[in-house]
What does this fold into?
Amino acid sequence: MPYGINETMGQYSELFMLLAAGTYTVAFIAFAWDLAKSSKALRAIDLKAAQASQPGSAQDSARVPVAAGVGDHAASAEASRSDSAGARLGGPAGRAERPTSSTTKAAGPGAGGVITADADMRYAAERRAPARVAVALTILGVLIHAAGVVTRALGAGRVPWGNMYEFLTTGAFVAVAVFLLVLVRRDLRFLGTFVVGLAIIMLVAASVAYWTPVGHLVPALQSYWLIIHVSIAVLSSALFTLTFAMSALQLVQSHRQKTVAAGGADKLGFMRLVPSALSLENLSYRINAIAFIGWTFTLMFGAIWAEKAWGRFWGWDTKEVWTFVIWVVYAGYLHARATRGWTGTRAAWLSIVGYLCVVFNFTIVNQFFNGLHSYSGL
Amino acid sequence: MSERVNLEKKSSTPATGNGLPAAKADAALPALGPKEMLRWAWTQLTSMRTALFLLLLLAVAAVPGSLFPQRPANPSIVTQYIKDNPDYGKLLDTLQLYDVYSSAWFSAIYLLLFISLIGCVVPRAIAHYKAMRSQPPRTPKRLSRLPEYGTLVIPARAGIPASDAIHGAAGLLKKRGYRVEVRDDDGARPSLGAERGFLKEVGNLVFHTSLIGVLVSVAIGGLFGYSGQRILVEGDTFVNTLVGYDQFTPGTNFQSSQLQPYSIQLDKFDITFDRESEGKFGQPIDFSAAVTTKENPDAPARQETLKVNDPVTLGGTSIYLTGNGYAPVVTIRDGAGNVAMQGPVVAKLQGDNYYSSVVIKVPDAAPDQLGFAGFFLPTAFVTDEGVSFSGDPELFNPQLTLNSYYGDLGLDDGAPQNVFELDVKDLTPLNARNLDAGGITLSPGTSYTLPDGKGTISFDGVKRYIGVDIHHNPGQLYALIFALLAVAGLILSLYVNRRRVWVRTGTHEDGRTMVEYGLLARGEDHRLAGEAEALRKLLTEEWQLDPDQGPPRTSQETPGSPGDNSTGAAATTGPATTPAGPTGPEKDQ
Ligand code: HEM
It folds into this structure.
């Protein structure tokens, strides 16, 4: 054992974790406020648009949130509504949900006021102050959180993923960090409440239910494969977390789009902050593809490690079973995207089921199923 | 792909030709002869929808294996489980739920899946081979219907006629990795077709084929592999022959001549215990076995270290450290005063801190055979209630507490017995807590004389033992190779983009050369717009055009730069008259 245990570092780490959880909580509130406020603002625009139905109104609304889509809509509210219904209902079934990003734009105006962000998820020159505050707070939180993870690692003298407490704290960190990284490329702030909320839950669960003092690894875990295998697993899970949220929103959004297109009332105003179902589907497909490759590596490296540790690379241990199940479900998801009649809503369901398996594997299997992997530190 | 094959077939046979294969085909079924039936079944089996269904079924079918105990992992737990659940335990067994991964139904699913896979991959590979050798598809009449479309105008003074322009464009595209064919280059409307990204499909085929490779490798391992277990006390030597194993599991096609007679001797076994952290005080944090190995009886001896996660490889097998414990060394003399048994006794772990059970069978004792059963504690403590426990894993206060028996051990009739269990049914107790003589309690260096002159037992010292698993799996290297191939194929398939580009040129009456181009993706491609932009830039540079000239290119994707957004929406909704339907990326479905 090259390093000793440093309990003081461990205590610092716990303090950082609590601080991070606190910061996240404030960020969560800001994200929620952003959703509420924006949907209110959007409703006001709607009202205005309904009153001013001459083309000039597009100019006005260009300055307020989510200009483009709404502006177009305002300009031709009635026409495009009936258009969209016609275009979508008249076309082949599921037409609007074909996984072809290039139809987005054509479907965009057609789908009328139900869409607020485009496929790139770059919003127009709007300012969402609460959202900015929320992101800033999340960044602050993730920095504190990083300090917590690093001090934990220093305290234990090894990588901080050797038991449930560490899986949870490090996993939450990776989830938030990945979210922030993706934010650089795409405006996924509508996922903020979900990701940050999940991180809070994970941190609280870690501190309350799974608290474990810094300690050495059991010999079964002393391998560089722990670093490789688990880090990729955690990263892929973080990506799956994002796509889960997006797929869930996709279902809601597509339901909403259908309702509105059929002339129903739009009861889910805040969903205007969320891109169209099709954009969600396309982006979550791309993230899922990366995560699937990551999961393939997780599976392979797990097998290699199992061969080193137990003498067989595959033995249908419970943890192995579930890793396999997750892999197959996401392979099914990728297939579904290439199978007629299975894109859109059904693919989204597969993505959701896949994530539920990930969660199940992490929580229930780690705790209640006995197997060779039973070293979750409980 | 096969879906597409499907379609073609259907349109050629109007009997089943319909968008709703299942329902309609069912209706048409009686009309089919046996041959058509087979063909119909094969098309169904190799369709994407079936593949998807089988995949999801496979995921579901794998789950019960994690819910019920599995025989291959631990047969005794299964036996116990059936005993504990008399009402449904047997039923689960008939459903093969204790052998999920070798069950008829699980095998059926994955075999069907792989048959479907082969039926899918082979025609696809042939089609792709042909596609790779044929020229890019003919230039569409209306390039403006493509998802990416743009025009450029070369002024007359540049002196680049239509045919030069097309060759210039062809050169550019070739450099960019496209396969290019120029058509009609001396006609009025020269054009070119270009295609790239054949590796996408190759990747997909490699991926799926490698999955078959992995499956076959696993099967080979099951046929020709073997595994076994052995316990080694410090000083013991294992020789790789069938009798050397405590337990041996051969593969279906195993031959004992496969065993190479190497040897491995356990010299010393060390454990480091955690003496730092509070919560885990006394937990082992390092196991290390010093061994001496010989590839074969005449080979030179080598010193090696065997650790958890760090097996020793020898004679085509790998040797893993999987367990350890203490082995008290005892000497037992019988009633006649002869040494009936001497040596270490492997104590089986029972509880915390190496609290272990001990069974000693002395069939050689005379006049009566002797048996002992009890416990070994490395650091013995006794509570106020008289319950003894082990306070530490290290040998601070080793103690052996035993009951003794005499009589017929039942070993002579040849029936196999568990060495860790003593059947006392036919034995007469000599020492026990409830007898006058009491139990036997020994610390190292002490001895005890059994009642009635049955003999003596002395506790001489303590050694450590290790449990090793020995595995030979000839398929495993191939499984790894195929798995790596699969990942490589997967990455290619997901990240190579297959694109087609067409360019057409023509000369305007006023001498300008008009260029139009269009792009089309096959499969998922979110970077098609980026490619269109890059091509436009290259062409502009090639002909030294004013970068801002000409009508804007149209793209059915959203503009790339954020600044474009508010105006971009207008710009793109303008030509939104472009029909969205048929121009989306082509999909193999
Ligand atoms: C062992 C079972 C299978 C697994 C694990 C599997 C997995 C996958 C994965 C992960 C992909 C996406 C990556 C890629 O495009 O290469 C894929 C694509 C594909 N698979 Fe499979 N597959 C299996 C069986 C099959 C079968 C039986 C068929 C044929 C019926 C098939 C046909 C296809 C096709 C056509 C694609 C390309 C989809 C596209 O164009 O995007 N696969 N498969």
